[in-house]
């Protein structure tokens, strides 16, 4: 039988108390690196249920942070690396393997980040995992990674997380670049069912208006925010295109290098524009000198 690219390997991890909690991993990566779990990390997301890999597509109920590293294509390594944060309304982590195949073919090392979901307001654990992935990739010079060329990428809620990391990390540590695909930015003006669910997961059901303002990333932008490219569709009914427009405006206002591409149709995705947007991202990375021009 053909080996499934995405399969589940169940491993037992010791937990506090007499019972053990199951975590799941992603098969097919060149390396799997466990950074920490709730018993060893600084912050916990208080998830006590077993992790699951739903229909071989999405991680759910995550209680550990693990990186699935896919090496740059042999002979094409550019020294660039990306921490890829899956989206899924902060309820699940939808694995997008097609993004990995595209990036590695252009000489970019990719780490899919299985981060701990906020689980009803425990978002410090989520941010800890996201920042930890960037810091870890910078240590992997043995993979040919240039510590100055580590960026972040995410779609939807993963785009929110990538933009959050682009602002929350200390100056001098921020990612070299950010690629945001139809990102959720404005937590206050959220109207879709998916956004309401994401808000409850990220901030907790009893969150205040100020909580939503504080984690709306267009309010976080400064002159040291990571250079950012945004790609989205204008008829997105899940996240308004205004989110990206507001983030782009904030970037430009603060003098941050930025680019934005809005397609007229495609909904909450950019897969219908793959042939168009993929070369645009690569050329933009060349513009930033993250990838050497040829």
Describe this structure as you would to a colleague:
With 294 residues, the protein is α/β, with parallel strands linked by helices. The chain has a single domain, classed as Rossmann fold (3-Layer(aba) Sandwich). It contains 7 helices and 13 strands. The protein has an 8-stranded mixed sheet with strand order 3-6-9-7-10-11-12-13, sandwiched between helices. Strands 4-5-8 form a 3-stranded antiparallel sheet, with no helix packed on it. Strand 4 (52-54) and strand 5 form a beta hairpin. Helix 2 (123-138) crosses helix 3 (157-168). Residues 1-19 have low confidence and may be disordered.
Condensed summary:
By secondary structure, the chain is an alpha/beta fold.
Mean pLDDT equals 92
- Uncertain stretches: 1-19
Q: What would you call the shape?
A: globular
Distance between the termini: 41 Å
Largest sheet: 8 strands, mixed
Percentage of residues assigned to helices: 25-40%
CATH class value? Alpha Beta
Strand content: 15-25%
Structural class: alpha/beta
Number of strands: 13
Q: Work out the helix count.
A: 7
Elements, N to C (H/E): EEEEEEEEHEHEHEHHEHEH
CATH topology: Rossmann fold
